[in-house]
Amino acid sequence: MRREYDFSKGERGKFYREGAKLRLPIYLDDKLQDHIEKIAHKKHREVGEMVQHLIQKEMEIIEELV
Description:
Shape: elongated
Order of helices and strands: HH
Oligomer: single chain
Radius of gyration: 21 Å
Structural class: mainly alpha
Largest sheet: none
Distance between the termini: 53 Å
Strand content: under 5%
């Protein structure tokens, strides 16, 4: 890294987008990821799609209990 950086020509908020949503990555432990990958493979689905489905089902169960 340099000792100093020149920000005199910088533009404030250049990459700011009002209303933009931040998509957070979700990290699973190895055992859980392996399990979900196996299920997704059996059902011919992407892992992300499978995780979405599982979370949606979990939310439905919780809503029924509340």
